[in-house]
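Subject: sequence -> structure tokens, single chain

Hey, anyone have a minute? Need the predicted structure for the following. Not urgent.
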Amino acid sequence: MEEGLRGLLDGYKAGIDPYLNLLPKENKIVLEVNVLLREMEKLAETNSYIEFMEKATAKDYFNRIIGYYGKLSMEQSKLAPKRTTIPAPSEIAKGYHLAYEALPTDTNLSLTKKVYERVFQLEKESKTGPEFLCKMEEEDLFLEMSRSHLNEVMRNGLEKMLQSGSDFSSDGKGVVSNPQMEHYFQKMQEQMKNAGSLMELEYNAMSSAEDSRFSNLWDNTFLNSVLNAVLNPLISWRMNPTEDLRKEVESAYFYLNEFWGLDWKGLFQITRVSEYFESTIYGGSGGQLKSQNIHSAADLKKDLEVCLEKCLKGKSLLGDSALKKTNVFFRGKEIAMKDIEEVLSETKLP
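Reply:
Had a minute. Here:
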């Protein structure tokens, strides 16, 4: 499993463990949470960071695990035993100490740790459990524990996503090109900072997760339909120049021209396409193309253009680039392809 994914999952576990430690293992909600955590572990073990983020978003994992915070809290309150004595602050704080000890040491969770340290200070200053709870409520620490932890998990997740693949990429940069996921992480951080209650935090998390899931699906469909539909057969022909593959390239390129109204030049004038090509297609090659005298995304684009010309057997690369064909529908609105990158970076549910 990638180090970044290990840190991301450990961060979520650290936030939810205090509830799991105080509830019976056979509790229905606890069982559901453990199943979800196992599914996330399995997905993380078999995918790269960006593949995990895309698939986990599509499966609604982030929305679901955040939603369990409130459910587990309700289960804990239902199962709380009736007492005839006043609990000591140390009894109430036991779960918070376990959660603090479970925080991953290799991830920057400084704000979360400060909140817990304030909780422990109030524990020492309080004479009774109710006094301890009142002080925590006065300083809004119940919300702050969840808010600060989730906010830092999102921040660390964004950093790891942007750095993913930098250890092997052609230029030392991350190979992830996903503007809507960047927007999702940034939006969630801002919303969590401003959330006034756990209910508001959960609602915003659900809304943002649904927003991200839809945008990610749309983005993948667009790239597959416009760029990868041409690049996949073209790269295959480059490695194995058979007649069948040549015909596939020719057919894909004519479809690009006739249906989308794009030629080779127009395709790469779409910011979303050129950015994805540079970051993921060229960046993900891991420097293997240098032996072929390809040292940049521009070199690779030119090399593929030469291959395309050979596949077209003298037919012009230029085609009908009618302006009306270079627009697409996104959430009921017609937008220009050149604006896709910007739209994905600021999209929100209507």
